[in-house]
Amino acid sequence: MEVYLRPFPNAAGGKWQISTGGGDFSRWRSDGKELFFITYDRKLMAVDIGERNNAPEIGVPRLLFETRISHPAGAGDFYSYDVSRDGKRFIISSLPADSAQSSNPITVDLNWTAGLKK
Length: 118
Fold this sequence. Notes:
five-stranded antiparallel sheet, 33% strand, mainly beta
């Protein structure tokens, strides 16, 4: 699987490959000038996207950072991350640093407003 750019709604206008070593889970920055995707080895990549003479101008994919994303590219049809509108912050569903360790319990306080009245 690779990440491609195609015009919409008329896909007959062309097809440009964005990723080069496998990729999935592409997300746009809100202004459409940058595209993010996850590689098979769980790296978050970014590519500058521009336009010249009514054709896309595609930059070279660059590594932003390595992740411990819970599902690598190609593992399913859902997103395990999201990006802020400005493309500077990410939220990622990650595996623990040592995925062999047992998970910590989660405490859910269902009646937390009762404590406010005291």
